[in-house]
Amino acid sequence: MLSEPEQPKWGFLPLSQHLSVDTKVAKTTHCRFCMMNWPKRQGKATENRFCPLDLYSGDELRVKRGLSALWASWISSNGSINNLRVFVGGAQVHPDDVRPSTPRQTKDPEVC
Length: 112
Hints:
Elements: E1 2-3, H1 24-29, H2 32-41, H3 52-56, H4 60-76, E2 85-88, E3 91-93, H5 95-98
């Protein structure tokens, strides 16, 4: 069972008419999740390349890329990221428990 506690309000870009001139460009090109995680990724060797807009896009390739990036960030963080919890038989597992069956990575996924 996979549980992804993504906030639905982060699955879209806001309408530009509701934004200030100062923030309009950034907020209409990057989702809230990516903007809030950008400072956390600075200077780290492994980046969380997951973007919730990929999951909500309805485009099969982007959904696969989003799932792959979510899985990769779960593996690289040893299960400590807050975006994904994996349970087997009702017990939470960590990447060390499931490493042999990790899915194939997509080629350099891009974030929004």
